[in-house]
Model the fold of this input.
Amino acid sequence: MLEIRQLDAFYGDAQALWGVTMDVHDGETVAVLGTNGAGKSTLVNAVAGLHAKRSGRISVGGRDVAALPAHKVCEYGVAVVPEGRRVFPGMSVYDNLCLGAYRRTARAEYRKGLDRVHDIFPRLRQRTGQLAGSLSGGEQQMLAIGRALMAKPTLLLLDEPSLGLAPVMTDEVFEAIEAVNAQGVSVLLVEQDVDRALEAASRGYLLAEGRVAGAGTSAELRASDTVQRSVLGI
Amino acid sequence: MTTIQAALSGILLGGLYALMAAGVSVTWGVLRIINLAHFGMILLGAYLTFELATAWRVNPLVTLVVSVPAMFVLGGALQWAFDYLRVSELNSLLITFGLLIVVVQSVSNVWSADFQRMAAEVNPYATESVRVGRFVFPVPTLLAFAIALLVILGAHLVLRRTFIGRALRAYAEDRPIAAAFGIDHRRIGVLLAAVTGATAAVAGMLFSLANALTPATAFEWFGTVFAVVILGGIGHLVGTLAAGVLVGLLSSVVSVVLSPATAPFVLFSAIVLALILRPQGLFTVGATR
Done:
Protein backbone atom coordinates (compact mmCIF):
# COMPACT_ATOMS: atom_id res chain seq x y z
CA MET A 1 0.00 0.00 0.00
CA LEU A 2 2.55 2.55 1.17
CA GLU A 3 6.25 2.24 0.36
CA ILE A 4 8.64 4.90 1.56
CA ARG A 5 12.22 4.66 0.33
CA GLN A 6 15.12 6.90 1.35
CA LEU A 7 12.87 9.82 2.22
CA ASP A 8 14.45 13.14 3.12
CA ALA A 9 11.99 15.80 4.21
CA PHE A 10 12.14 19.27 5.62
CA TYR A 11 10.34 21.14 8.35
CA GLY A 12 10.54 24.68 7.03
CA ASP A 13 14.16 24.96 5.90
CA ALA A 14 15.53 22.48 8.44
CA GLN A 15 15.87 18.86 7.40
CA ALA A 16 13.73 16.73 9.70
CA LEU A 17 13.85 13.26 8.07
CA TRP A 18 16.97 11.48 6.80
CA GLY A 19 16.73 8.46 4.52
CA VAL A 20 13.56 7.06 6.05
CA THR A 21 12.41 3.74 4.63
CA MET A 22 9.21 2.03 5.73
CA ASP A 23 6.20 0.07 4.48
CA VAL A 24 2.55 -0.26 5.27
CA HIS A 25 1.06 -3.36 3.65
CA ASP A 26 -2.54 -3.65 2.49
CA GLY A 27 -4.97 -3.68 5.40
CA GLU A 28 -2.28 -3.24 8.02
CA THR A 29 -2.05 -0.79 10.92
CA VAL A 30 1.52 0.38 11.43
CA ALA A 31 2.60 2.52 14.36
CA VAL A 32 5.30 5.17 14.23
CA LEU A 33 6.76 5.90 17.65
CA GLY A 34 9.14 8.57 18.78
CA THR A 35 9.58 11.59 20.99
CA ASN A 36 8.66 15.16 20.21
CA GLY A 37 10.83 16.40 17.38
CA ALA A 38 11.68 12.93 16.11
CA GLY A 39 10.10 13.81 12.77
CA LYS A 40 6.77 11.98 13.13
CA SER A 41 4.57 14.83 11.96
CA THR A 42 6.98 15.66 9.17
CA LEU A 43 6.61 12.05 8.01
CA VAL A 44 2.81 12.32 7.88
CA ASN A 45 2.97 15.69 6.13
CA ALA A 46 5.52 14.45 3.63
CA VAL A 47 3.33 11.53 2.63
CA ALA A 48 0.19 13.70 2.44
CA GLY A 49 2.00 16.26 0.28
CA LEU A 50 1.72 19.01 2.86
CA HIS A 51 5.46 19.60 2.72
CA ALA A 52 6.64 20.83 -0.62
CA LYS A 53 10.27 20.00 0.09
CA ARG A 54 10.83 16.26 0.10
CA SER A 55 12.89 13.81 -1.89
CA GLY A 56 13.11 10.07 -2.14
CA ARG A 57 10.31 7.74 -3.15
CA ILE A 58 6.83 7.60 -1.65
CA SER A 59 4.56 5.23 -3.46
CA VAL A 60 0.89 4.73 -2.69
CA GLY A 61 -0.67 1.67 -4.29
CA GLY A 62 2.29 1.50 -6.69
CA ARG A 63 2.14 5.15 -7.82
CA ASP A 64 4.88 7.58 -6.89
CA VAL A 65 3.42 10.58 -5.09
CA ALA A 66 6.65 12.13 -3.78
CA ALA A 67 6.52 15.05 -6.20
CA LEU A 68 2.77 15.67 -6.08
CA PRO A 69 0.95 18.51 -4.31
CA ALA A 70 -1.51 17.59 -1.54
CA HIS A 71 -4.67 17.79 -3.66
CA LYS A 72 -3.24 15.23 -6.11
CA VAL A 73 -2.07 12.86 -3.38
CA CYS A 74 -5.63 12.94 -2.05
CA GLU A 75 -6.90 11.65 -5.39
CA TYR A 76 -4.85 8.49 -4.85
CA GLY A 77 -6.84 7.61 -1.73
CA VAL A 78 -4.69 9.11 1.02
CA ALA A 79 -6.60 10.87 3.81
CA VAL A 80 -5.05 12.61 6.77
CA VAL A 81 -6.13 13.23 10.37
CA PRO A 82 -3.70 16.02 11.14
CA GLU A 83 -2.01 16.88 14.40
CA GLY A 84 -4.22 19.20 16.43
CA ARG A 85 -7.28 17.94 14.49
CA ARG A 86 -7.55 21.03 12.26
CA VAL A 87 -11.30 20.77 11.71
CA PHE A 88 -12.79 23.79 9.94
CA PRO A 89 -14.05 25.66 13.01
CA GLY A 90 -16.49 28.02 11.31
CA MET A 91 -18.22 25.23 9.38
CA SER A 92 -20.86 22.89 10.72
CA VAL A 93 -20.14 19.26 11.55
CA TYR A 94 -22.17 18.26 8.50
CA ASP A 95 -20.21 20.61 6.22
CA ASN A 96 -16.89 19.39 7.60
CA LEU A 97 -17.89 15.81 6.80
CA CYS A 98 -19.14 16.68 3.32
CA LEU A 99 -15.91 18.54 2.65
CA GLY A 100 -14.09 15.29 3.40
CA ALA A 101 -15.95 13.75 0.47
CA TYR A 102 -14.78 16.49 -1.92
CA ARG A 103 -12.58 14.21 -4.02
CA ARG A 104 -14.30 12.94 -7.10
CA THR A 105 -14.54 9.24 -6.26
CA ALA A 106 -15.95 9.95 -2.79
CA ARG A 107 -18.41 12.69 -3.72
CA ALA A 108 -20.85 10.46 -5.56
CA GLU A 109 -21.34 8.31 -2.47
CA TYR A 110 -21.22 10.95 0.24
CA ARG A 111 -24.56 9.91 1.72
CA LYS A 112 -23.32 6.37 2.21
CA GLY A 113 -20.18 7.87 3.73
CA LEU A 114 -22.22 9.93 6.18
CA ASP A 115 -24.11 6.84 7.33
CA ARG A 116 -20.85 4.97 7.80
CA VAL A 117 -19.30 7.79 9.85
CA HIS A 118 -22.45 8.20 11.94
CA ASP A 119 -22.41 4.47 12.68
CA ILE A 120 -18.86 4.72 14.00
CA PHE A 121 -19.41 8.05 15.82
CA PRO A 122 -23.11 8.36 16.74
CA ARG A 123 -22.26 11.54 18.62
CA LEU A 124 -21.50 13.33 15.33
CA ARG A 125 -25.06 12.69 14.19
CA GLN A 126 -26.39 14.58 17.22
CA ARG A 127 -23.99 17.46 16.57
CA THR A 128 -24.62 17.67 12.84
CA GLY A 129 -25.66 21.33 12.65
CA GLN A 130 -23.26 22.60 15.28
CA LEU A 131 -20.13 24.58 14.38
CA ALA A 132 -17.05 22.38 14.56
CA GLY A 133 -15.24 25.03 16.60
CA SER A 134 -17.78 24.64 19.39
CA LEU A 135 -17.16 20.89 19.86
CA SER A 136 -15.09 19.40 22.68
CA GLY A 137 -11.59 18.18 21.89
CA GLY A 138 -12.70 14.57 21.72
CA GLU A 139 -15.61 15.36 19.45
CA GLN A 140 -13.32 17.37 17.18
CA GLN A 141 -11.01 14.37 16.98
CA MET A 142 -13.97 12.18 16.00
CA LEU A 143 -14.90 14.76 13.39
CA ALA A 144 -11.35 14.88 12.05
CA ILE A 145 -11.37 11.08 11.69
CA GLY A 146 -14.88 11.12 10.25
CA ARG A 147 -13.88 13.76 7.73
CA ALA A 148 -10.95 11.63 6.62
CA LEU A 149 -13.20 8.56 6.27
CA MET A 150 -15.57 10.54 4.06
CA ALA A 151 -12.78 10.64 1.49
CA LYS A 152 -13.09 6.82 1.17
CA PRO A 153 -9.36 6.43 1.78
CA THR A 154 -7.31 3.33 1.11
CA LEU A 155 -4.59 4.75 3.35
CA LEU A 156 -5.38 6.70 6.50
CA LEU A 157 -2.66 8.82 8.12
CA LEU A 158 -3.28 9.62 11.79
CA ASP A 159 -1.10 12.16 13.56
CA GLU A 160 -1.27 11.96 17.39
CA PRO A 161 -4.99 11.15 17.63
CA SER A 162 -4.84 10.88 21.47
CA LEU A 163 -3.20 14.28 21.97
CA GLY A 164 -5.06 16.33 24.57
CA LEU A 165 -7.92 13.85 24.98
CA ALA A 166 -9.38 12.45 28.19
CA PRO A 167 -8.70 8.70 28.60
CA VAL A 168 -12.36 7.78 27.96
CA MET A 169 -12.30 9.72 24.70
CA THR A 170 -8.99 8.14 23.74
CA ASP A 171 -10.55 4.71 24.20
CA GLU A 172 -13.38 5.63 21.89
CA VAL A 173 -11.03 7.05 19.26
CA PHE A 174 -8.82 3.96 19.27
CA GLU A 175 -11.82 1.66 19.02
CA ALA A 176 -12.83 3.64 15.96
CA ILE A 177 -9.36 3.32 14.43
CA GLU A 178 -9.51 -0.45 14.87
CA ALA A 179 -13.00 -0.54 13.38
CA VAL A 180 -11.82 1.41 10.35
CA ASN A 181 -8.84 -0.87 9.90
CA ALA A 182 -11.16 -3.87 10.14
CA GLN A 183 -12.97 -2.51 7.08
CA GLY A 184 -9.77 -2.90 5.09
CA VAL A 185 -8.28 0.58 5.29
CA SER A 186 -4.51 0.65 5.79
CA VAL A 187 -3.47 2.87 8.68
CA LEU A 188 -0.26 4.72 9.47
CA LEU A 189 -0.56 5.70 13.12
CA VAL A 190 1.79 8.28 14.58
CA GLU A 191 1.42 8.27 18.35
CA GLN A 192 3.26 9.18 21.53
CA ASP A 193 1.21 6.83 23.65
CA VAL A 194 3.33 3.74 23.00
CA ASP A 195 1.07 1.23 24.72
CA ARG A 196 -2.05 2.23 22.89
CA ALA A 197 -0.27 2.54 19.57
CA LEU A 198 1.24 -0.92 19.77
CA GLU A 199 -2.07 -2.37 20.88
CA ALA A 200 -3.79 -0.99 17.77
CA ALA A 201 -0.94 -1.82 15.39
CA SER A 202 0.54 -5.10 14.28
CA ARG A 203 3.97 -3.62 13.51
CA GLY A 204 5.81 -0.41 14.22
CA TYR A 205 8.80 1.78 13.54
CA LEU A 206 10.78 3.89 15.96
CA LEU A 207 11.89 7.31 14.77
CA ALA A 208 14.71 9.13 16.55
CA GLU A 209 16.17 12.40 15.36
CA GLY A 210 14.67 11.98 11.93
CA ARG A 211 15.98 8.46 11.28
CA VAL A 212 14.47 5.01 11.63
CA ALA A 213 16.02 3.73 14.86
CA GLY A 214 14.13 0.48 15.14
CA ALA A 215 11.42 -1.68 13.62
CA GLY A 216 9.52 -4.80 14.48
CA THR A 217 6.23 -6.37 15.45
CA SER A 218 4.29 -4.80 18.27
CA ALA A 219 5.42 -7.50 20.69
CA GLU A 220 9.08 -7.04 19.74
CA LEU A 221 8.87 -3.27 20.10
CA ARG A 222 7.09 -3.52 23.43
CA ALA A 223 9.91 -5.65 24.77
CA SER A 224 12.66 -3.59 23.22
CA ASP A 225 14.96 -1.56 25.45
CA THR A 226 15.63 0.95 22.70
CA VAL A 227 11.94 1.81 22.47
CA GLN A 228 11.57 2.16 26.20
CA ARG A 229 14.69 4.28 26.45
CA SER A 230 14.01 6.44 23.44
CA VAL A 231 10.32 7.12 23.96
CA LEU A 232 10.11 7.21 27.71
CA GLY A 233 13.45 8.94 28.03
CA ILE A 234 14.73 6.46 30.64
CA MET B 1 -42.78 62.25 4.07
CA THR B 2 -39.63 63.14 2.16
CA THR B 3 -37.61 61.43 4.88
CA ILE B 4 -39.51 58.16 4.42
CA GLN B 5 -39.15 58.44 0.66
CA ALA B 6 -35.41 59.06 1.15
CA ALA B 7 -35.15 56.07 3.49
CA LEU B 8 -36.85 53.76 0.99
CA SER B 9 -34.76 55.05 -1.93
CA GLY B 10 -31.64 54.65 0.19
CA ILE B 11 -32.48 51.02 0.96
CA LEU B 12 -32.96 50.32 -2.75
CA LEU B 13 -29.70 52.07 -3.60
CA GLY B 14 -27.97 49.98 -0.93
CA GLY B 15 -28.65 46.84 -2.95
CA LEU B 16 -26.30 48.04 -5.67
CA TYR B 17 -23.62 48.97 -3.13
CA ALA B 18 -23.96 45.49 -1.70
CA LEU B 19 -23.56 43.88 -5.12
CA MET B 20 -20.43 45.93 -5.80
CA ALA B 21 -19.08 45.06 -2.35
CA ALA B 22 -19.90 41.35 -2.49
CA GLY B 23 -17.17 40.61 -5.02
CA VAL B 24 -14.53 42.55 -3.10
CA SER B 25 -15.59 40.93 0.16
CA VAL B 26 -15.50 37.33 -1.05
CA THR B 27 -12.16 37.55 -2.89
CA TRP B 28 -10.68 39.20 0.17
CA GLY B 29 -12.13 36.65 2.58
CA VAL B 30 -11.42 33.50 0.59
CA LEU B 31 -8.43 34.32 -1.63
CA ARG B 32 -6.80 37.00 0.54
CA ILE B 33 -6.69 39.32 -2.45
CA ILE B 34 -7.94 42.87 -1.92
CA ASN B 35 -9.04 43.43 -5.45
CA LEU B 36 -9.35 47.13 -6.26
CA ALA B 37 -9.37 46.17 -9.93
CA HIS B 38 -12.91 44.99 -9.19
CA PHE B 39 -13.97 48.64 -9.45
CA GLY B 40 -12.27 48.76 -12.82
CA MET B 41 -14.29 45.74 -13.92
CA ILE B 42 -17.51 47.37 -12.74
CA LEU B 43 -16.53 50.45 -14.77
CA LEU B 44 -15.75 48.34 -17.83
CA GLY B 45 -19.06 46.55 -17.41
CA ALA B 46 -20.89 49.87 -17.26
CA TYR B 47 -19.15 51.19 -20.38
CA LEU B 48 -19.67 47.94 -22.27
CA THR B 49 -23.39 48.24 -21.59
CA PHE B 50 -23.32 51.90 -22.64
CA GLU B 51 -21.41 51.14 -25.84
CA LEU B 52 -23.48 48.15 -26.92
CA ALA B 53 -26.75 49.90 -26.13
CA THR B 54 -25.72 53.11 -27.88
CA ALA B 55 -23.93 51.73 -30.94
CA TRP B 56 -25.92 48.54 -31.51
CA ARG B 57 -29.27 49.51 -30.02
CA VAL B 58 -29.20 46.50 -27.76
CA ASN B 59 -31.47 46.46 -24.73
CA PRO B 60 -29.20 47.29 -21.74
CA LEU B 61 -30.16 44.09 -19.93
CA VAL B 62 -29.24 42.02 -22.99
CA THR B 63 -25.74 43.55 -23.07
CA LEU B 64 -24.93 41.19 -20.20
CA VAL B 65 -24.64 38.45 -22.82
CA VAL B 66 -21.36 40.12 -23.81
CA SER B 67 -20.18 41.85 -20.65
CA VAL B 68 -20.68 38.94 -18.24
CA PRO B 69 -18.51 36.46 -20.19
CA ALA B 70 -15.93 39.20 -20.82
CA MET B 71 -15.57 40.06 -17.13
CA PHE B 72 -15.74 36.37 -16.20
CA VAL B 73 -12.66 35.74 -18.33
CA LEU B 74 -10.89 38.91 -17.17
CA GLY B 75 -11.53 38.19 -13.48
CA GLY B 76 -10.31 34.62 -13.82
CA ALA B 77 -7.24 35.63 -15.80
CA LEU B 78 -6.26 38.22 -13.19
CA GLN B 79 -6.52 35.69 -10.39
CA TRP B 80 -4.50 33.18 -12.40
CA ALA B 81 -1.77 35.81 -12.70
CA PHE B 82 -1.94 36.72 -8.99
CA ASP B 83 -1.62 33.07 -8.12
CA TYR B 84 1.21 32.49 -10.58
CA LEU B 85 3.10 35.50 -9.18
CA ARG B 86 2.27 34.51 -5.58
CA VAL B 87 0.84 37.94 -4.79
CA SER B 88 0.43 38.53 -1.05
CA GLU B 89 -2.54 40.23 0.56
CA LEU B 90 -0.81 43.60 0.98
CA ASN B 91 0.81 43.50 -2.45
CA SER B 92 -2.54 42.74 -4.01
CA LEU B 93 -3.74 46.12 -2.74
CA LEU B 94 -0.89 47.91 -4.49
CA ILE B 95 -1.00 45.92 -7.71
CA THR B 96 -4.75 46.11 -8.14
CA PHE B 97 -4.72 49.85 -7.40
CA GLY B 98 -2.24 50.21 -10.26
CA LEU B 99 -4.48 48.08 -12.47
CA LEU B 100 -7.47 50.22 -11.56
CA ILE B 101 -5.63 53.38 -12.64
CA VAL B 102 -4.72 51.71 -15.92
CA VAL B 103 -8.36 50.74 -16.51
CA VAL B 104 -9.65 54.21 -15.64
CA GLN B 105 -7.12 55.83 -17.99
CA SER B 106 -7.91 53.41 -20.81
CA VAL B 107 -11.62 54.06 -20.40
CA SER B 108 -10.92 57.82 -20.58
CA ASN B 109 -8.94 57.30 -23.76
CA VAL B 110 -11.64 55.26 -25.43
CA TRP B 111 -14.81 56.96 -24.20
CA SER B 112 -13.39 60.36 -23.02
CA ALA B 113 -13.61 61.73 -19.50
CA ASP B 114 -16.94 63.48 -20.15
CA PHE B 115 -20.15 62.38 -18.52
CA GLN B 116 -22.10 60.10 -20.83
CA ARG B 117 -25.53 58.67 -20.41
CA MET B 118 -27.45 56.13 -22.46
CA ALA B 119 -29.96 57.94 -24.65
CA ALA B 120 -33.58 57.57 -23.58
CA GLU B 121 -34.54 55.63 -26.71
CA VAL B 122 -32.02 52.85 -26.00
CA ASN B 123 -32.62 52.77 -22.24
CA PRO B 124 -36.33 52.05 -21.87
CA TYR B 125 -36.03 51.86 -18.08
CA ALA B 126 -34.48 55.27 -17.44
CA THR B 127 -37.60 57.35 -17.35
CA GLU B 128 -40.05 54.85 -15.95
CA SER B 129 -41.02 54.69 -12.32
CA VAL B 130 -43.38 52.76 -10.10
CA ARG B 131 -45.77 54.66 -7.86
CA VAL B 132 -46.84 53.07 -4.56
CA GLY B 133 -49.20 55.32 -2.63
CA ARG B 134 -47.37 58.59 -2.37
CA PHE B 135 -43.93 57.06 -2.90
CA VAL B 136 -42.15 56.94 -6.24
CA PHE B 137 -39.49 54.40 -7.18
CA PRO B 138 -37.51 54.71 -10.39
CA VAL B 139 -37.43 51.42 -12.33
CA PRO B 140 -33.60 51.34 -12.64
CA THR B 141 -33.25 51.46 -8.86
CA LEU B 142 -35.88 48.76 -8.37
CA LEU B 143 -34.20 46.58 -11.00
CA ALA B 144 -30.80 47.11 -9.39
CA PHE B 145 -32.12 46.15 -5.99
CA ALA B 146 -33.96 43.06 -7.21
CA ILE B 147 -31.06 41.75 -9.28
CA ALA B 148 -28.50 42.49 -6.56
CA LEU B 149 -30.68 40.63 -4.07
CA LEU B 150 -31.00 37.63 -6.39
CA VAL B 151 -27.28 37.46 -7.14
CA ILE B 152 -26.18 37.82 -3.52
CA LEU B 153 -28.69 35.37 -2.08
CA GLY B 154 -27.96 32.92 -4.89
CA ALA B 155 -24.24 33.13 -4.19
CA HIS B 156 -24.93 32.70 -0.49
CA LEU B 157 -26.86 29.50 -1.16
CA VAL B 158 -24.09 28.17 -3.38
CA LEU B 159 -21.55 28.84 -0.62
CA ARG B 160 -23.73 27.13 1.99
CA ARG B 161 -25.12 24.15 0.15
CA THR B 162 -22.79 22.93 -2.57
CA PHE B 163 -19.52 21.03 -2.63
CA ILE B 164 -17.74 23.90 -4.37
CA GLY B 165 -19.15 26.36 -1.81
CA ARG B 166 -17.93 24.24 1.09
CA ALA B 167 -14.57 23.95 -0.62
CA LEU B 168 -14.30 27.74 -0.80
CA ARG B 169 -15.20 28.16 2.86
CA ALA B 170 -12.80 25.42 3.91
CA TYR B 171 -10.07 27.01 1.81
CA ALA B 172 -10.69 30.34 3.55
CA GLU B 173 -10.32 28.69 6.94
CA ASP B 174 -7.34 26.35 6.51
CA ARG B 175 -5.57 26.19 3.16
CA PRO B 176 -3.21 23.22 3.69
CA ILE B 177 -5.92 20.98 5.13
CA ALA B 178 -8.33 21.97 2.38
CA ALA B 179 -5.64 20.94 -0.11
CA ALA B 180 -5.19 17.61 1.67
CA PHE B 181 -8.85 16.90 0.93
CA GLY B 182 -8.44 17.41 -2.79
CA ILE B 183 -9.06 21.13 -3.19
CA ASP B 184 -6.92 22.57 -5.97
CA HIS B 185 -6.32 26.15 -4.87
CA ARG B 186 -5.59 27.44 -8.35
CA ARG B 187 -8.73 25.98 -9.85
CA ILE B 188 -11.17 27.20 -7.19
CA GLY B 189 -9.38 30.57 -6.95
CA VAL B 190 -9.69 31.24 -10.66
CA LEU B 191 -13.29 30.04 -10.68
CA LEU B 192 -14.23 32.28 -7.76
CA ALA B 193 -12.51 35.33 -9.26
CA ALA B 194 -14.19 34.68 -12.61
CA VAL B 195 -17.64 34.54 -11.01
CA THR B 196 -16.78 37.68 -9.06
CA GLY B 197 -15.85 39.38 -12.33
CA ALA B 198 -19.23 38.38 -13.73
CA THR B 199 -20.97 40.09 -10.79
CA ALA B 200 -18.92 43.23 -11.55
CA ALA B 201 -20.35 43.21 -15.08
CA VAL B 202 -23.88 42.98 -13.66
CA ALA B 203 -23.21 45.79 -11.17
CA GLY B 204 -21.79 47.97 -13.95
CA MET B 205 -24.83 47.40 -16.15
CA LEU B 206 -27.18 48.27 -13.28
CA PHE B 207 -25.21 51.42 -12.48
CA SER B 208 -25.33 52.58 -16.09
CA LEU B 209 -29.13 52.28 -16.17
CA ALA B 210 -29.62 55.10 -13.70
CA ASN B 211 -26.45 57.16 -13.89
CA ALA B 212 -24.30 59.15 -16.26
CA LEU B 213 -20.87 57.55 -16.63
CA THR B 214 -17.46 59.10 -16.19
CA PRO B 215 -14.25 57.15 -15.63
CA ALA B 216 -13.53 58.83 -12.29
CA THR B 217 -16.72 57.29 -10.84
CA ALA B 218 -14.63 54.20 -10.11
CA PHE B 219 -12.77 56.13 -7.44
CA GLU B 220 -16.01 57.46 -5.97
CA TRP B 221 -17.27 53.92 -5.36
CA PHE B 222 -14.22 53.22 -3.27
CA GLY B 223 -15.22 54.74 0.04
CA THR B 224 -18.81 53.62 0.15
CA VAL B 225 -18.13 50.12 -1.11
CA PHE B 226 -15.24 49.56 1.31
CA ALA B 227 -17.47 50.77 4.12
CA VAL B 228 -19.98 48.09 3.12
CA VAL B 229 -17.29 45.41 2.93
CA ILE B 230 -15.94 46.20 6.40
CA LEU B 231 -19.34 46.64 8.05
CA GLY B 232 -20.69 43.45 6.53
CA GLY B 233 -17.74 41.37 7.68
CA ILE B 234 -15.10 40.26 5.18
CA GLY B 235 -16.29 37.22 3.27
CA HIS B 236 -19.86 37.40 4.56
CA LEU B 237 -22.44 37.75 1.82
CA VAL B 238 -25.58 38.21 3.89
CA GLY B 239 -23.74 40.65 6.15
CA THR B 240 -22.62 42.54 3.06
CA LEU B 241 -26.19 42.77 1.83
CA ALA B 242 -27.39 44.09 5.18
CA ALA B 243 -24.50 46.53 5.38
CA GLY B 244 -25.21 47.78 1.86
CA VAL B 245 -28.81 48.49 2.77
CA LEU B 246 -27.75 50.18 6.01
CA VAL B 247 -25.18 52.38 4.28
CA GLY B 248 -27.64 53.31 1.53
CA LEU B 249 -30.30 54.13 4.08
CA LEU B 250 -27.98 56.17 6.27
CA SER B 251 -26.43 58.28 3.53
CA SER B 252 -29.76 58.90 1.83
CA VAL B 253 -31.58 59.96 5.01
CA VAL B 254 -28.70 62.16 6.20
CA SER B 255 -28.59 63.82 2.77
CA VAL B 256 -32.22 64.81 3.09
CA VAL B 257 -32.41 65.63 6.79
CA LEU B 258 -29.09 67.44 7.08
CA SER B 259 -27.32 67.97 3.75
CA PRO B 260 -25.72 65.84 1.05
CA ALA B 261 -22.31 67.14 2.11
CA THR B 262 -22.81 65.81 5.64
CA ALA B 263 -23.63 62.28 4.47
CA PRO B 264 -20.03 61.05 4.11
CA PHE B 265 -19.14 62.56 7.48
CA VAL B 266 -21.95 60.73 9.26
CA LEU B 267 -21.33 57.53 7.31
CA PHE B 268 -17.63 57.31 8.07
CA SER B 269 -18.13 58.33 11.69
CA ALA B 270 -20.53 55.41 11.97
CA ILE B 271 -17.89 53.14 10.44
CA VAL B 272 -15.23 54.26 12.90
CA LEU B 273 -17.67 53.52 15.72
CA ALA B 274 -18.52 50.13 14.22
CA LEU B 275 -14.83 49.26 13.89
CA ILE B 276 -14.25 50.11 17.54
CA LEU B 277 -17.27 48.20 18.79
CA ARG B 278 -17.51 45.29 16.35
CA PRO B 279 -14.32 44.96 14.30
CA GLN B 280 -15.42 41.55 12.96
CA GLY B 281 -18.38 43.14 11.15
CA LEU B 282 -21.81 44.16 12.36
CA PHE B 283 -23.66 41.04 11.39
CA THR B 284 -21.20 38.24 12.03
CA VAL B 285 -21.90 35.73 14.77
CA GLY B 286 -19.00 34.63 16.95
CA ALA B 287 -15.59 34.24 15.41
CA THR B 288 -16.57 32.60 12.15
CA ARG B 289 -15.33 33.92 8.90
